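Fig. S4 source data, part A: sequence.
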Amino acid sequence: AITAVHRQLPWLLSPSANEIVVLGAAGYLGHVCVGLVDTQQLAPLLAVLDPLGTLNAVLAMLMVVGLAQIGVNPIVTVTLLVGLLPTMGIEGLTPELIGASLMVGWALALMSSP
């Protein structure tokens, strides 16, 4: 079985090689961007976002859709937001809410972006 998979895998994956590289690179870029952002520098932004509470989930969803319209891969945006939003400590913004809003934003971005 392993020999058959070894022989068939290149034939199965070669048509989608470009997509695999783009998805992997975009995910890595998002992860690197999270490491480069200093969350202490986001304190003025937190003063604006904290009173909005759970509305920030809608803003995150719209950010994914909006950036996809100008060519930023949703993987980069979602990876960046998933890494940053929980560390900001915004009240009412649970991981479940963040995940659901970003999944909806990703789906809308895939349907509407060029």
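Fig. S4 source data, part B ends here. The chain has one domain: 27-112.
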